[in-house]
Description:
Blueprint: H1 3-19, E1 27-34, E2 37-44, H2 54-60, E3 76-83, H3 89-98, H4 104-107, E4 114-123, H5 126-132, H6 137-143, E5 150-156, H7 159-176, E6 181-188, E7 191-198, E8 206-210, E9 214-218, H8 221-235, E10 254-259, H9 262-269, H10 271-296, H11 301-309, E11 321-324, E12 329-332, E13 336-337, E14 340-341, H12 347-351, E15 356-364, E16 367-375
Antiparallel strand pairs: 1-2, 2-16, 3-4, 3-10, 4-5, 5-9, 6-7, 7-8, 8-9, 10-15, 11-12, 13-14, 15-16
Helix pairs in contact: 10-11
Amino acid sequence: MMTHEADGYRQWRQRYLRNWSQNFDPLGIRFIVEDDRIVADLTIMPLIALSDYDDITRFIGDARIDPNTGDRHEDALVQLIMGFDRDQSWLRQMAGGLFRGQPDAIRTNPLGWIGSSISLYIDRDAFWDAAFNSDDPEDYIYDNYGQLPIYLYIEVADSLKFSAFMLSLRSVADQMMPDMIAWESQEKDGLEYVRITFADEDMPHLYYAVKSRALILSPREDVLFHAVQRLTARAGGEVHESVGETMPWLGESVCAQVSGDMLDSLDLIFWDQYRERLQERSWDNLYILNEWRRLYGDVDALALHEDIWGTRLTCPGGGEYVWNDHLSSYESTVYGHPLEPLPGPGLRELLGHIEAGNFGITFEHDGLRGVTEIRR
């Protein structure tokens, strides 16, 4: 950008802040379309007052995601990371209230041991196959949530503060829920870790370990081990076999990476709910199409509607609207009719072949920049 262009934008920005900052977000977006990927680069600057992003920015604060942090690996279906500002005053007050009666060093900033980011990972696993082959995948996942291949990765900036935090946390837990939680030190294959068990047998175990300045927390022991193995390999300058080719974080505040295989899992778990919504949206168009047919006889109701209203009715599932003599009504070729419904396409069919999605947001200069990359 030329100097005079930057100066011109600053002048416009000041006028916007004086007159329009309560009303809308000024934005610009750039698209890159290539054979194997689509990129959308969005900038909103500045954000309006009382923005929907305020809750996120209060959590992130001035923290920035290190491009080399986290446990990015090829076996992950979903990888989420968010910057974390441990010095935010509201966060210190809230956490400090939980640790009343603990030493001042803990009470003043209980989360002072956390680094600049927290991340979450969901891995490929036989769990998803078992859910897929069950009679009701959604119920299977709900009933077996303790076996989800998921773990939390929290940067540890100060190991001494972390140790003090865990001692205080145990003390608080014992005071609030005596004899309800057990903390058991474990050792296996040279790894020292802790198993947390609950008196309520319906609650899954939790396992945690600290390795390479990171806290790993998971409901599954094997998932914890795999994460630690990757961290150990990285610390030794090696690459664990499960890491493979990874994508960079695209933002400095919030990032997400989703494998194309996750579409099948989302289809399995959540798609029925969205399928019903898409069916209803598709069927909503049938009423006006049938009305045009009633008023004007055997006409192209879609073309007539477009001529009158300047808008072409489309089926959200990518289907066509055709006349059904048996029902005396229009219907969708993919969602059918309320009297004879069709399931419609799955998420994978609807979105086509997607290898991976990479998303990043950076809050900067009173605005944000969001980058989305879809690899095909």
